[in-house]
Design goal:
single chain, about 140 residues, mainly beta, signal, DUF2846 domain-containing protein
């Protein structure tokens, strides 16, 4: 049963990556949370649940046509200096990303330790921490 659940989760992730129904040969880019950001630089993982107010299936990468997108993120900051209780966390933030063809945009949460006691969700912001070249068809 455990293996069946893992298989279904893997297939769901693969489908999410290709769920945009882009025409064959269309240009595309990717918004990605797959690669672990460098924590020593104050960067932590995020989850994405909406792109342009459309709900998305949880995935490591989202294939998109070139254009500007508003991406809704949630931080997964594990820094021990962040001692906010769970009820004061979990607020989403949005980041605008201009997706170009054949590029992958790696998104992370930038921890701002000076604002870690703020109750207005100022202790982090979503950032694109790396852009890499990647052909659309790969």
């Amino acid at each position: 049963m455990k293996y069946l659940i893992l298989l279904l989760a893997s297939l769901t992730s693969l489908v999410a990556c290709k769920s945009n129904d882009l025409p064959e040969g269309a240009e595309c880019g990717r918004v990605s949370i797959f690669m672990k950001p460098p924590e020593p630089q104050g960067l932590y993982p995020v989850q994405i649940d909406r792109i342009d107010d459309r709900a998305v299936v949880k995935s490591g990468a989202y294939v998109l046509e070139p254009g500007v997108y508003l991406v809704k993120t949630y931080e997964i900051i594990t820094d021990p200096r962040l001692k906010l209780p769970g009820r004061d966390r979990g607020t989403s933030k949005r980041i605008e990303i201009k997706v170009e063809a054949n590029k992958r945009y790696h998104v992370a949460a930038k921890f701002i330790p000076e604002k870690r006691y703020s109750k207005r969700n100022e202790y982090w912001e979503p950032v694109v921490w790396q852009v890499t070249d990647e052909p659309c068809g790969s």
